[in-house]
Amino acid sequence: MANLSSILKHNQSFVEEKKYEFYETTKFPEKKLVILTCMDTRLLELLHHAMGLKNGDAKIIKNAGAVVSHPFGSVMRSILVAVYELQAEEVCIIGHHECGMASLNASAIFEKATQRGVKAECLELLANAGIDLNSWMTGFDSVEDSVKYSVKMVRNHPLMPEDVPVHGLVIDPKTGGLEVVEDGYSQKNVSLSGNTG
C-alpha cells in the first residue's frame, strides 16, 4: 500500500533528469488510430510492441474486457472524441485470450463486495432502482464474440461516420500474436443483433 510514495519519488527524478524528453509527442495520434483494449497488466507494453506502436502513435482506451457495453457510455464517447477532435481515422477493438472478464460471475463479485464492507441494503437499493447489476457485472463466454459485438456497437453508432474502419482483433497475452476477427476494411454497416452477456 506504499505505492504512492515510491511513485512520487521516482517521478521526481524522472522529471529532474528530463527522461520525459524521450516520450515527447503531440495529442494527435501519428497513425490516426484509436484502440480500445483490456486493462490486463500483460498488455501494458506487449500490445504496443506487438503492433509496432510507439508513444504518440495511437489513442488508447482501456477497460475490463475491451467491451463497449453502452452506446452512450464513456468508452463510446472517447472513441467519438478521438475521431472528431483528435484526427483518428480508424478504430481497433482488441480483446485477449485468458481474459478475466470471460465467464465473470456477478454473484461472486457481489459476495466479495459485501465481505469488503458494502452493505447488502446498497445492492438491494440499486436493484430496486431498476439497475440490473447481474447483467452489468457479467462477463462473456467468447472473447471473439465479445469483440465482434463491440465492433458492431461502434460501427453502427449513429454518430460514427461510415468511412471509419472499425477492426476487431484478439491478442495472445503470452506471445503477442494477433488474430483478426473483424476486418473493418471489408465490412459495411451491419445492424446490431444479439448480446454477449
TrEMBL record:
It catalyses: hydrogencarbonate + H(+) = CO2 + H2O. The keyword Ion transport does not apply. Pfam families: Pro_CA. It is an enzyme of class 4 (lyase). SMART domains: Pro_CA. Binds 1 zinc ion per subunit. Its EC number is 4.2.1.1. Belongs to the beta-class carbonic anhydrase family. GO terms for molecular function: carbonate dehydratase activity; zinc ion binding. Keywords: Metal-binding, Zinc. Coiled coil: none annotated. This is carbonic anhydrase. It comes from Bacillus glycinifermentans. The keyword Transmembrane does not apply. It comes from the Bacteria. Zn(2+) binds at C38, D40, H96, C99. Its cofactor is Zn(2+).
